[in-house]
Design a protein that fits this description.
heterodimer, A: about 400 residues, Porin, 16-stranded antiparallel barrel, three-stranded mixed β-sheet, about 55% strand, disordered N terminus, B: about 70 residues, about 40% helix, about 0% strand, disordered C terminus
């Protein structure tokens, strides 16, 4: 009997599918459980975060699955408020409007009331059919479609968020003096995201992904806890602390590409790049590389390098001169021109088909221009863009039952 | 939409149109089927990263939705 090429391909295809199903997908009724805890700590007693997560996925059979995820997110510490340092002691009213705190001369003003604990629970039901995937999670939906013998996967998604902004002490009226405490109770914001992606198998050992994203945000986009300092035109000393102001809409577009290759020695190389641009004037480039060294007995070691740079928003100011009143102004360092580098590694072990653990340690450093040319008077002696340094530690344990 | 946005879409379309000749047969998927070769391998790491960088930088999303986040950015 002579089998045609097409028949052989079909038989091999069926055999391969049954072989491949075993290590990758859970048996029907099994739970795949991922647990992890993240510690994030910035130097100089700034932000600290502790974030444990447990996530479970149950295979319901018939290409259906259910995922439940519980996250506890606890933040403490202090965050740069945007106000400039001064040669004198500065007094700031707390966000609640009750009480105040003082900042020593020549110190970066930090809001020391930064404290937040939140718990989130999400449930995600997924139904996969041969050429059509559908995922829905309260405000977002994602569709996937395989073509070209499952070598090409198309993804389309939409995400809608409605946020109520209810900051401590109320949402301040933009660009008003801190001393006036002109605040409203609540405000709202709407964010809509669209995503179009394609994942393509290149050959037996490599694949790539390209995503295009659009994001439209409308409403209250100002950070209610940030200030921008109004300074004396001669001395550069702050004379007023104004609540910042951002435009009430933001339109973002990004292109994201990721490439993965498994080498002949089973090591895995991953590279990704993202370009983002928005109508606030921020353009950013992000490069991310990792290399997973496969060691004996299921161990692996994975160094990683991430590099990020962004231009400043059109309304970013280190400070405002006395009498200068633009329609929007923010001194939030996250909207300034800067570069950030993350270096670190992950070390882990696939214990057996049922369980694995890993440990991740990374260092993050963010730097901007701390002595900009527009600084004058006492401002020329101050650090106007303090470096952020953070340590990221994470433990993971995954098992199946 | 501005020129940058059109460029992004054009770029994506060009990449996508060149995909049709790429790929493997089903029995050649032994390496690609490994869990660590999934595009979203280490999903919890990706979620943590997204949370950290969203809080420290002006950009977010790309691999997933950008979103509006927690209200602190």
């Amino acid at each position: 009997m002579q089998l045609s090429k097409k028949k052989v391909a079909g038989l091999l295809s069926a055999a391969t599918c049954s072989l491949l199903g075993a290590p990758v997908q859970a048996e029907e009724g099994d739970w795949d459980v991922d647990t992890a805890v993240l510690f994030y700590s910035e130097s100089d007693d700034r932000v600290e975060a502790f974030e444990p997560v447990i996530s479970g996925t149950r295979d319901l059979g018939d290409d259906e699955s259910l995922t439940m995820k519980l996250v506890l997110d606890s933040l403490t510490g202090a965050s740069a408020s945007g106000a400039v340092p001064s040669t004198m002691v500065q007094t700031f009213i707390r966000p609640s409007g009750n009480g105040s705190y003082q900042v020593a001369p020549n110190e970066t003003p930090l809001d020391d009331t930064f404290k937040d604990t939140r718990v989130s629970f999400s449930m995600n039901w997924e139904k996969l059919s041969k050429e059509y995937d559908f995922t829905s999670l309260s405000g977002n939906a994602m569709w996937q479609r395989d073509t070209n013998q499952k070598n090409t996967t198309w993804s389309y998604g939409v995400n809608v968020e409605f946020d109520d902004i209810d900051p401590v002490g109320g949402a301040p009226e933009p660009l008003t003096d801190m001393l006036a405490q002109d605040k409203n109770n609540t405000d709202t914001r709407t964010v809509v995201d669209f995503l179009l992606g394609v994942t393509q198998v290149i050959d037996r050992s490599s694949l790539f992904q390209v995503n295009l994203s659009l994001s439209e945000a409308d409403g209250y986009l100002t950070d209610p806890y940030k200030f921008v300092s109004e300074v004396d035109n001669v001395t550069g000393e702050p004379i007023n602390q104004l609540f910042e102001s951002r435009p009430d809409s933001r339109s973002r577009q990004s292109i994201y590409g990721k490439y993965k290759k498994i080498l002949t020695n089973k090591d895995i190389f991953t590279a990704s790049y993202r370009f983002m641009t928005d109508d606030w004037g921020v353009d950013s480039n992000t490069f991310d590389f990792s290399y997973r060294w496969t060691l004996d007995n299921g161990y692996y070691f994975q160094p990683r390098l991430r590099w990020y740079e962004q231009s400043e928003a059109d309304f970013y100011y280190y400070f405002l001169r006395d009498g200068e009143l633009p329609s929007d102004a923010s001194a939030d360092y996250r909207l300034g021109e800067m570069e950030a580098t993350t270096v670190g590694f992950k070390f882990g072990r696939q214990i057996d088909e049922q369980s694995s653990w890993s440990f991740r340690l990374e260092l993050y450093e963010q730097e901007g221009d701390s002595s900009p040319s527009e600084a004058f008077g006492q401002l020329a002696q101050q650090d106007l863009y303090p470096t952020v340094e953070a340590t990221i530690v994470q433990f993971n344990y995954s098992f199946r039952w | 939409m501005n020129i940058k946005c059109h460029s992004l879409i054009l770029c994506g379309a060009l990449i996508a149109s060149g995909c049709s000749s790429l790929g493997v047969k089903p029995w050649e998927r032994d390496l690609l089927a490994r869990e660590d070769m999934l595009m979203n391998a280490d999903a919890l790491d990706l979620a943590f990263d997204e949370h950290i960088y969203f809080s420290k930088e002006a950009s977010s999303g790309g691999q997933g939705f950008a979103g509006g986040g927690c209200g602190c950015n």
